[in-house]
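My current task is to audit a protein record that another person submitted. I have pasted the whole thing underneath without changing anything:
***
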Amino acid sequence: MPLPLKVNVLQPIDKLKFFVERQLIKGAGYQLFVIVGVIALVSMVGGFLLAPISDHQSNLAEDIWWAFLRLTDPGYLGDDQGAWKRIVSTLLTMCGYVLFMGTLVAIMTRWLIAFMERLEQGLTPVSIQQHIVILGMSSRVTPIIRELLGIEANRTFYKKHHKDKNVTVVLLAEQANAAIHQQLLAEVALPAKWSRQLILRSGNALQSEAIHRAACLQASAVILSNKYQRSDSLVTTDVETIKSLLTINVLAKSANTFPRLVVELDDVRHTALAKKSYQGQANILVTDQTISRLMAQCAVAPNLLKVYTHLLNSQNQGRFFIKDGTSHVGKTLAEARLYHKTAILVGFIDTSSQIFKLAVGAQAKHRIVASDSLVYVANDVNLLEPSIEPARPSVLPNKNRTKETVDSVRSRKKLLLLGWNRRVPNIIHELDSYTNESFDVTLVSTMSAQIRQQEINKLGQFSTRINLTLYEADYMIENEVRQFNPQEQDIILLVYSDRLDSAEEADARVLVGSMALDQILEQYPNRPHVLIELSDPSNENFLEHSKTDTFITPLLMSHLLSQVALVPQHQILFDTLMEAEGVQIYLKPLSHYTDKQMLKSAELQPLVESQGELLLGVFQADAGDKAIQLSLNAERRISSLSNDLLIVIGE
């Protein structure tokens, strides 16, 4: 027989406790109201206890006031006479300590702490304009903030183009508090003066309230960066980015104000959809396309990655600057170049066609208009101002050397590609676009060869310049790598896996695989050209000690995002330079232009220009941190004996 169900009936005291609880959780105001009620009740009880012996028997209010004074001020305790009166006075004084010094102070302190925590959460909308907004926390955020706030050249450039206003960065993150703010400042390592220019707001970029909280519609640029994500995830970062674009577009249409967006996507196939999602100006940078092009170009040209890293990193002296053509209106590019002795006028971006053109040959005769964006290479933004008097024009020599034509096909190169991620098919197709190169590609990964082949086939068939062979093996195991004879390869490319849960795990595999590869190659005198790809910006220090060309994808994209946020024309410039055909950066020996073993920079420039190229600087492999020097002094001597390589730009 089942036991009878016991039913508990609420007692009056339970109802009272529930009522008090509901009042207390409403906030500090209700808590104070309850405490005031308790103080009044205790004062009344004290007055009633005093009434039998009180001198004010006809006035109960005086007794209650007497009790209230003992609650609030312990100093009255010594004035009372009689045992009962002293007992009541002592009890009231003890209650006063609890109610006033304990409960009231606790309520006010807790309210103040809660109020400060709400302020630190960044829920208050910012009331500034012409700032830069970063939507979402990712591995790109720290390098972007360091570029925008930590580099004096960028701060100066921003100030000149925004009516002498200092740059302010607003970061919209899902969690924002004082601890996260301080941790971020410690990672960025900003001076105290500029750390105040970083503002955190809490919220999600998918929510319209959060977009309003960061004042995105009043910003000079809004950056939407990607974060690390497994390749097999159903909801990719591109999906979240496009949803954010739709949210911003709705708000912008209602306010009739469209801020400029700098958007990072993973997959180039989502570009058209992203453009359709936002009606304003949007600079869309595709990570897979950008990194694949750069990897292919740097695989073909050893040490070229170091040049690109130098140009993209604003901390280095010598980089691209873009300026309007108002100071040279009416002059040709060749004439305007003579007014810059400490900067190199490389070319211009035609605003109407959005194409970068090099200032050599027939294009050097282009007449500059105010809308042209002039592209310079200089060591500082202040060096872009033209001099009063032009320099003497140099006389171009006759072409005494035959420039290598793009139609001349070189010997086939052996490329060993270790690992797999979603951009590997793009890398191979980019290599196939170099018409004067051909490759025997050996693709090694633990992933099924059949699945990899299916992914590669989605981009179409290769030309005969690519011969692809797929194997299943683990590059972390030294004996398995040896069977592919890495010492006989011309190029070895080691990429991280995007099938792991975190960037740290992915990089750990790459670094261990790189060590295993070094163990094999150190036995042979001729080392192939080795490139490795990492996914965690915290491994930036690895670049300083690495003997290989090291891609840190988030770091490269962060540099590019920050530069495009400051000057949108940088996207056109770098997109042009990274393509397989057209204007590119090259590393060439001095012997390519002259039989002399040493020349001054001023003497070498006409020789380079006679072949349709411009001299940007010099690469010295043994110079350490100063291996790359751009915008050379006219008296700078370049020697073939020290194995100097010329950094030139041409078609």
Remarks:
- The mean pLDDT is 83.
- The longest helix spans residues 83-120.
- The chain has 22 helices and 22 strands.
- The first strand starts at residue 132 and ends at 135.
